[in-house]
Amino acid sequence: MQYVVIYLHGFLSSPQSQKATQTLEFVRANYPNLAIEIPQLANYPHEAVKNIELCIAKHKGKKLRFIGSSLGGFLSTYMVEKYSGKAVLINPAVRPFELLGDFLGEHINPYTGQPFLLENSHIEELRQLDTPTLDPKSDYWVLLQTADETLDYRQAETKYQDYKVTIEQGGDHSFQDFQRFLPDIFRFLLQD
C-alpha cells in the first residue's frame, strides 16, 4: 500500500516556511515517487481541518502520515486520532486554545499577506479539536527543544509520554537544525 505524507505548518506560517521547504526538497531528492501534500492551511481551525481533509480525500486508500509543526502538530494529532496513521510532531502545540486567547484580534499572515480576524469562536473551534486522550495504537514521534520561546515543551512531553519523544536542550520554537532529522523522520513514517 502506498503512503501520503501531509505536512502541516503552524499558526501564521505557510508551505513556504523553512521546515516545509526542507521537507519537500528532501522528499524530491530521496523519495521522488512518494505522495506529499503541504497545504496552505486556512487561518481558522475548522477551515484548516477542511483543507487537510481535502488532501486526505485525494489520496483515498493510501496510508496517512503527518508531519506537524506547532499548531500543525495539534492538527496532526487530531487527524491521526480520527483517521489513524502516524505523525512526527515538531514542538507541537498541546493546548493552543489556551495560548491563542492572547492573540485575539487582527493579524496578517507574513507569508501570504492575508489579513484575518481571530475571534473567541475560533478559540472554541480549537477546543473542539482537542484530543485529551490518545489511542494506544496511534504512533507518534515528538521532537522538542527545551528553549522553545512560544510553547512549554513539558506539555508535549507529558501528553506524548507513551510514545517516542526526543528532547534537545536549547533550540527554539522553529526547532533549530530540523533538516538533520529528515532521514530518520522518513524512516519512521514509512515503516509499518
From TrEMBL:
Where are the membrane-spanning stretches?
A: none
Q: Which domain of life is it from?
A: Bacteria
What Gene3D superfamilies does the annotation carry? alpha/beta hydrolase
Task: Cite the InterPro entries for this sequence.
Answer: AB_hydrolase_fold, UPF0227/Esterase_YqiA
Pfam family for this entry, one: UPF0227
Protein name per the record: Esterase yqiA
This protein's species is Paraglaciecola arctica BSs20135
